[in-house]
C-alpha cells in the first residue's frame, strides 16, 4: 500500500479520543507550515506586487472600511 493510503487508513482507524489529539496536532503543524511558507514568500518578494497594488488602490481612495 502506498504511503499516503497507509496513513489515511491509519487515521481512519483511530479511536475518537486519539483522532481529536491528531486533529489538534495537525492543525498546529499545518499552521506552522503555513506561517513559514508565508514568511518565506514575503522575504522573497513574492507578495510585493500585491502589496503595491493594494497600496495604490488605498491611495486612490478605492478601499472601503471593513
Quick recap of the structure?
76% of the residues lie in helices and 0% in strands.
- Note the run of SSEs as H and E: HHH
Euclidean distance between termini CA atoms: 50 Å
The total of beta strands comes to: 0
Q: Count the helices. How many?
A: 3
Overall tally of structural domains: 1
Outline type: elongated
Fraction in beta strands: under 5%
Low-confidence residue ranges: none
Instruction: Kindly report the average pLDDT value.
Output: 96
Fraction of residues in helices? Answer: over 70%
Topology, pairings included?
Layout: H1 3-12, H2 16-43, H3 48-59
Can you describe what's shown?
- With 66 residues, this protein is mainly α.
- It has one domain (3-59).
- It is 76% helix and 0% strand.
- It contains three helices and no strands.
- It has helices at 3-12, 16-43, 48-59.
- The chain is elongated.
- The relative contact order is 0.06.
- The mean pLDDT is 96.
Keywords:
76% helix; 3 helices; mainly alpha
Amino acid at each position: 500500500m502506498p504511503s499516503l493510503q497507509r496513513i489515511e487508513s491509519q487515521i481512519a482507524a483511530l479511536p475518537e479520543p486519539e483522532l481529536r489529539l491528531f486533529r489538534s496536532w495537525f492543525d498546529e503543524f499545518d499552521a506552522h507550515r503555513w506561517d513559514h511558507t508565508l514568511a518565506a514568500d514575503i522575504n522573497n518578494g513574492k507578495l510585493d506586487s500585491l502589496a503595491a497594488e493594494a497600496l495604490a488602490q488605498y491611495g486612490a481612495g478605492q478601499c472601503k472600511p471593513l
